[in-house]
Each structure stands twice: as structure tokens, then as C-alpha cells.
Design brief:
With 125 residues, this protein is mainly beta. It contains 1 helix and 8 strands.
Length: 125
């Protein structure tokens, strides 16, 4: 059931943050040592998504989609058509927000990639 695409494309704003896993060890003398948690040039992406105002039917569909993924448990595919960065296997990072302003259902969500991926090589590599 995890090979399903995110169902809504009414995106008003999308931000993509690439992050890496670095582990820092602090020592008694005040110095620190760092090491990578993942291989070099590997990262995950975090998607911040703000939907355009949703209708009641679209909100119910999103709520059902979230419930079928067991909240933050199951992964699904998210297609980044805004930045043209391809598809990403992601999970919800927080529960669905339940507070709305007036009749507008402007839902803000955050997805996080499930596995680290290798960055595309740069020219100097």
C-alpha cells in the first residue's frame, strides 16, 4: 500500500530543505569531534507544503489519505512538480492540523524523505 502518490496538487507554497546527518561528540576539554551519519553527499529532503484553500470534499479526501497511511507510519510518493526535482518517498512528520480560519481550509503539512539519497554530482566532481 506504500506505492501510492500524494493525492492533492493544489499547492500554494512549497519549500524543500536538504539536510544531512552529522553526529557531534563533545569532550571534557571543550573540543568537539564530528562524523557523518550517512555517506558523503547523501541527504534527505524535508518538504514544507501549504495547500491552496481546500474544499470540504478535498479536505475529507486528505484526511482519509492520512488515515490510510496510519498517520506518520506508512510512506508514500510525493511528486515535486514545483521545483522539478522528481519523486520522493516520504512520510508525514506531524498529525493533520485541525484548526481553520473561517471557511478556508489552508492546510500546512511537512513531509520527510524516508531514506537518504545521493546528491547529483557537481561539475568539479
Amino acid at each position: 500500500m506504500s506505492d501510492v502518490f500524494y493525492p492533492l496538487s493544489l499547492i500554494e507554497q512549497l519549500s524543500v530543505e536538504k539536510f544531512e546527518r552529522t553526529i557531534a561528540d563533545a569532550f571534557e576539554d571543550g573540543s568537539t569531534s564530528t562524523r557523518r551519519g550517512w555517506s558523503a553527499q547523501n541527504f534527505k529532503r524535508r518538504y514544507g507544503l501549504l495547500h491552496a484553500p481546500l474544499t470540504e470534499a478535498e479536505w475529507r479526501y486528505l484526511r482519509s489519505f492520512h488515515s490510510q497511511r496510519h498517520g506518520r507510519y506508512d510512506s508514500f510518493w510525493f511528486r515535486d512538480n514545483v521545483h522539478r526535482e522528481g519523486n520522493a518517498k516520504v512520510r508525514f512528520t506531524a498529525p493533520l492540523p485541525l484548526n481553520f480560519q473561517g471557511g478556508a481550509r489552508r492546510v500546512q503539512l511537512t513531509f520527510e524523505e524516508v531514506a537518504a539519497i545521493r546528491a547529483l554530482p557537481e561539475w568539479d566532481e
